[in-house]
Model the fold of this input.
Amino acid sequence: MPEPAPRIAVIGGGQLARMMAQPAIALGVPLRLLAEAEGVSAAQVIPDQVVGDYRDLPTLREVTDGCAVVTFDHEHVPTEHLHALAEAGVAVRPGPEALVHAQDKGVMREAMARLGAPQPRWALVSSAEEVEAFGLPCVLKVTRGGYDGRGVWVVRTAADATDALAAARRTGVRLLAEELVPFTRELSALVVRSPSGQAAAYPVVQTTQRDGICHEVVAPAPDLDPVLAGQAQALALRVAGELGVTGVLAVELFETVVEGSPVILVNELAMRPHNTGHWSQDGAVTSQFENHLRAVLDLPLGSPAPRTPWTVMVNILGAELADVPRLYDGYPHALARDPRLRVHLYGKDLRPGRKVGHVNAYGDDLDDCLERARHAAQWFTGELGDSSE
Amino acid sequence: MPEPAPRIAVIGGGQLARMMAQPAIALGVPLRLLAEAEGVSAAQVIPDQVVGDYRDLPTLREVTDGCAVVTFDHEHVPTEHLHALAEAGVAVRPGPEALVHAQDKGVMREAMARLGAPQPRWALVSSAEEVEAFGLPCVLKVTRGGYDGRGVWVVRTAADATDALAAARRTGVRLLAEELVPFTRELSALVVRSPSGQAAAYPVVQTTQRDGICHEVVAPAPDLDPVLAGQAQALALRVAGELGVTGVLAVELFETVVEGSPVILVNELAMRPHNTGHWSQDGAVTSQFENHLRAVLDLPLGSPAPRTPWTVMVNILGAELADVPRLYDGYPHALARDPRLRVHLYGKDLRPGRKVGHVNAYGDDLDDCLERARHAAQWFTGELGDSSE
Done:
């Protein structure tokens, strides 16, 4: 008697794992979670769980025991552990050879160069002299361990590079210099690929950052040149195929103008459900979370087509406030004002700069969607006043 | 420091509780489950759980301890226990005074008569003579404890009533006789009502039964006279208000013809998310499961408007087969054939006559939706051949 369905191990108890739980319920696929601590976001909603350290191989072996597949809420599992799991017969999806491109920005830049993908001018640097030789101003990034704006420095003088160089030396990672791209906006091309090579491309979206954290997404990207949109999707599909990605691949892009024409340049890669795909939960036929699960199980992928002309996602980001409201107390106004609003909370308390949820607003009119989503997100954080009233 | 959000106790570990878990994740609202046994449908997906008997008051007290609200996967909790919980300060939603109308078909018939709701001719009976006096043919129903076609008999001769009379005597419940309505079809009017009286009405749907079990739902009901649809919604809203329902109320209706005009007659009431509302998970702005949670929390309700012209729901019902397939093995074909198909499995094995899941197909063309949903449901059960290949 076979198991009713293959079990998927998910490493990391953040909101991405939490949001995988919803389609797992629908698909009848059991998840087993490795959570960093008791009661974290995904641990609140996935019964089969182990609490432990994702850097510890015996813990990873315990969690994946009896699982057909292992996938990830984040990209921080050591590469050598992933190889060890794969050797023990667990399907690691995405696999370590692919995932390293999302873990190490230096490896990613080298791969993009090899593939001929358009990207900013870049170099690996290890001294103030090398930074100056690269050319100022520039952006410095630690090649491993940075996220949500951490581990990134905009450098205008050689002295500005001190912090970045010290951080790289302290953590023993390489430092990447990139030209400061005068981008007109940021885009994201999100695709999902299965081990057998089937791949689905979501519409290219426009993303807006706030302090290095994804803040707002508009799907599809307004007024995007259809040729450029096609290039972005084709690029993401090619990267996914060439790197052997399984599951979601998000290719974050700069849109900029070269000799009067719009072009795209690869900014970052992510290999997991991504903030720029949260709109798909309510705006697409199949959400990125469901398609991620289908991909890592090598099941046929669902349609990534939009269900509606526009979907706007705005993150609920904790603000600096004297009186931090309780998120739940934002419901009476937010839901009554907009009966079509879709709210996704992560089971986290509000803290400044912390992503605690997001809202999706969809419809025929972009301005209306923007107004509804922005109002709701600000209301929940207390930025529009005391939401507890 | 208040709790992040009020906790909801859910009594019963079936698929309705399982499907409440998805919007609870999105809303950031914690659920605590009372499951009949380890590993039942909802117990697979709700971490905070107690295994025990819903007929045992101490167990009910343990489950609801620390919960703001208690609601239900089924209607079988004894009325006196609900009163005891309410007296202990737990908000019981729906409350015992309302729920009794879904628990006891005799009480329901008396209430519908009091409200002047259109219904079949009926009488409470306790002997073969009373059944004959009522008039044959007729339908006999135990007033308590029947569901999915169990506890219902179509009686054409007085001798046919023997089983029904014996069942009623054995279980100590009253027996209800109803005229055999020559209905043209069955409809369902589903509304959601909050304690403060806000109420949302979903479009009236057409339902088809197979062996007394809901099998197929078309939303909205095709070619339904708009006046009759309005009457059905108004009736369901009035019943919800007059009986003080909180959460979902499904009013199952017969459509029949009287003196050349279509009319509706109340068949059954259910006070919980209902099989005739499963289409709303993919076809409406807000699903019945999310609106049920919002209602029992007295939060503003979400829009019940359809997102698409047609949604068809078909249940996956175990068939009588020599080789019972594994549901999961139906995925490769079902998902590849229809990338827009929405599948909902309940974590149950296939058994003849057992509801183990449902599929939703939505779109602009009704015939296309019907074909897609019926094909997929039959494929999963193995009725179209061996789905394990």
The two ends of chain B are 56 Å apart (CA to CA).
